[in-house]
Amino acid sequence: METMIETRNTHNGTIDSLITQPYRVKRVLNETHDTFTLHLEPENGKDANFSFKAGQFNMLYMYGFGEIPISISGDPDKPHQLVHTTRAVGTVTKSMRRLKRGHVLGVRGPYGTEWPMDELKGRDVVFVAGGIGLAPLRSAMYQVVTRRELYGKVVLLYGTRTPIDILFRKELERWKSRFDLDIFVTVDRAVGAWRGHVGVVTQLVARAPFDPRNTVTLICGPEVMMRFSIMEFEKRGVTPDRIYVSMERNMKCGIGHCGHCQFGPSFVCKDGPVYRYDKVNKLIDIREV
Amino acid sequence: MENLGSILKKHPFFQGLEDNHIEFIVGCAANARFKTGEFLFREGHEANYFFLVREGLVNLEIYSPQKGAITVQSLGEGEIVGWSWIISPYQWRFDARAAEDTRLIALDGKCLRDKCNQDPSLGYELLKRFAPIIEQRLVATKIQLLDLYGNDD
Questions:
Q1: Domain boundaries, chain A
Q2: Among residues A8, A86, A151, B26, which one has the fewest Cβ atoms lying within 10 Å of its Cβ?
Q3: Do B77 and A207 touch (CB under 8 A)?
Q4: What does the pLDDT look like over B124-148, one tens digit per residue?
Q5: Do the chains contact at B136 and A203, CB–CB below 8 Å?
Q6: ipTM of the complex
Q7: Nearest CA in chain B to A132
Q8: What CATH architecture is A15-111?
């Protein structure tokens, strides 16, 4: 049967791709009270040819605890600085948070499809991130900022829970200070000193500055947030073939063999996580999928 | 410089209204400015206005003795602030405060209420325009309540 999902994954899917490489922790950054960023480098200089595309993920193996998929949040132009950002929420990520400089963990990848960077050229680009969803979008944002002249308006709409949950705060401030980027941050609730926007990120779509006829949007966050964001983009006239979403499912092998992340006729680990919305909109509407 | 009439006519909220209705609404409109921290209105006070934000940001707040002012929603450029003027008992349910220096158009709700009572077709047109705003904010509130970004633990 011909698959209905467009695939851009370049991973070879062989047994070699299941072998982890040891990486040493170079730096640990506590981003918020429950999120952190790991900067990794290959041990003994191995894997020096590692490269990845914005939107892809690696499987990170905490020896003795387990292996989990984590998006790459670094700059694809600087693949030697392997950067992952995640939230300490389960056994593996909680143990990962205790890592210190010099500790070693296993890395295999990169896996999955990437954000459509070529398609963004000459268009307005709107990034929509919810919570930790900003991490996989940051890689694409780096590329757009580096080659800013290739794009029309560049807008980032970022929503998170409260002001203390804002990720990459310094970077957001730096981007906000540029006249050629429109950065909007909103929180679901706030008390005290917060002087920014309060409300759900989907509300920002209605008044974001972009031309709906010539816009591509990249969305990453909880599925409910993505659904409501898409509705707002469609209301403004952005067609489903110019909307990209990053899906999340229970990924285990990373190469589409184990079946844990099955999403209709596709596997999120190899046919996703980045999908063009018109290819999956019918699947998203089916609760059993 | 644009006058109030042309600004209101161009705004999506008023689009499609008959000219005589627009003329009447313009007669109830005035420019308003609030500096950062100033209140547009306070909870429990009589609701006799609504506002169209031209520039800036307005926070809707609930005051809690334990936590102080809690912002529940922000409204920015192009958005409408306040619908209590059209719903009995015409009392504000929240505080509204300028989060930054804000320019708005203030519309006299009391004057509009009287007119709506005399001319139900205007009342119907205004309610048709406020209903989607109320619906959008209800949906937004429900999404907020889901606490989508919360820790699953």
A1: 15-111, 117-284
A2: A8
A3: yes
A4: 999 999 999 999 999 999 998 888 8
A5: yes
A6: 0.84
A7: B149
A8: Beta Barrel (2.40)
